[in-house]
Amino acid sequence: MEVRRWIEGDETAKEMLERVFTQRSSLALPPPLHRIPLRSGDVVEIAGPSPSAKTQILLQAAVSCVLPKEWKGTYYGGLGQTVLYIDLDSKFDVHRLLQMLKHRIVGANGHSSSGCDEEIINMCMKRFFYTCCYDSFELLATLKTLHYRLQRENLALENHGHVIMMDSIGAFHWMDRACTSFVLEGYNRKSISFQNVMVIVVGELRKLLSVHSMVVICTKTANLGNYVDDRNFGKRSAPDNPDSLRDIGNGRRPVFREYMPSIWQSLVTHRIFVQALGDQVAVRKHRDGMVYSLEWSLPCLSFSDKFVVTDAGIALV
Questions:
Q1: Is 7 inside a domain boundary?
Q2: Centroid of chain to Cα 237
Q3: Which long-range contacts (CB under 8 A, 24 or more apart) does 282-287 make?
Q4: Is residue 17 part of a domain?
Q5: Residues of the chain whose pLDDT is less than 70?
Q6: Would you say which domain of life the source belongs to (predicted)?
Q7: Range of the domain at 291
Q8: Residue 29 lies in a domain
Q9: What is the pLDDT of residues 170-217, one digit of tens each?
Q10: Would you call 15 helix, strand, or coil by DSSP?
C-alpha cells in the first residue's frame, strides 16, 4: 500500500526534499567519531590492535545514542536512538556503561544528585538492548530475528532510529576456520567456513539496512604485520618491537594484515583505525592514562585525533 501511494501520489520539490532529509537524517556521534556525520545505511568499521580503546568508543557512542536531546527542560545533547549491542568478544561491562551515562547526566544537571536521575537512567536503559553471542550460529540467529525485534521495539518505543553495535566482527574467525569439515544440513550442503558465515552476515545486514533506518558500527581487532618506514621510501620489514610501531612520529607506520573477506569489505562505508601511542611524553602529560590516536582511512582524512579514556568517557587531547 505504501508503494502504491508513493507511485500514485504527487508532491512538490520542497516536500520531496523534506521527506528525503527526514528519512536520511544525519547521526552526529560524540568525539572521537565526530568528524564525519553518519547517515542511515552507513556501516562503520573501527579497527585497531588490542588494546586500543575500541570498546570504549562503542560505549561512548551508545551513551550519546540512548540519551535524549532534551528532557524536562534539561539539555542532554543525546540522539534518542535505540542501540542493539551485539557482544561477540564477551567484553561488555554494564557498570562501565552506567558510569559513563551517569557522568553525562550529572554534567547536564549541574549537580551530583537529582530526583529525576534514576528516572532518566531507566528511560535510557530501555533504549539499550544487549545480546551476547558465543559462536557464529548464535550471531546468525540474532541477525535472522532482528527484523521482527526491531518492529516490536518500534511499536513499544515509538522510535524509528536504530544503531547496531557489534564488538567485534572477527571474533569467531579462528573458530570458523577450524570447522570447515562440518557441513550444514540442506540440499546445498555448504561447509561452515568464515567466508560462508560472513556472506550470510552481510546478506542479513543488507536486508536490515534496506528496511530500517539504522547505522551499523563494528569493531575489528587488527593483526600486526610489517611496518613501513617513510624515511626509507616505504621499505617494508618485520617489526622488531611492537611498541615502536605505535610511535608515528619516528617515521614508522604500522601495516596490518586484512583477514576479513571481500564481501565484508564491500559492505563497509567508513573505516577508522585506532591505536595506542608510544609517546611517553604524551602519556606523562595526560595522567588519565594511555594516549590513543584515531585516523579515518575511509574516507581518508589528512589528520588524526588523539584522545584519552577517563572515568567520564573519552576526551580529546
A1: no
A2: 32
A3: 282/306, 282/317, 286/317
A4: no
A5: 1-9, 11, 16-25, 111-116, 154-160, 180-191, 224-255, 278-288
A6: Eukaryota
A7: 40-316
A8: no
A9: 999 888 877 755 444 444 555 678 888 999 999 999 999 988 889 999
A10: helix
Do 316 and 31 touch, CB atoms closer than 8 A?
Answer: yes
How far out from the chain centre does Cα 255 lie? 22
The 10s digit of each residue's pLDDT in 253-299 is 556 788 999 999 999 999 999 999 865 444 445 565 789 999 999 99
Query: CATH number, domain at 228?
Result: 3.40.50.300
Rounded CA-CA distance 103/312 in Å is: 5
Q: Per the structure, how many domains does the chain have?
A: 1
Q: Which one-letter amino acid corresponds to residue 148?
A: Y
Report the distance separating Cα 296 and Cα 54, nearest Å: 14
| Side chain identity at residue 233, one-letter code | F
Q: How far apart (Å, rounded) are the C-alpha atoms in residues 262 and 73?
A: 48
Of 273, 267, 179, 291, nearest to 223 by C-alpha is 273
pTM: 0.81
Q: Say how far apart CA 19 and CA 237 lie, in whole Å.
A: 53
C-alpha cell recorded at residue 188: 546445498
Q: Which residue has the cell 570504549?
A: 56
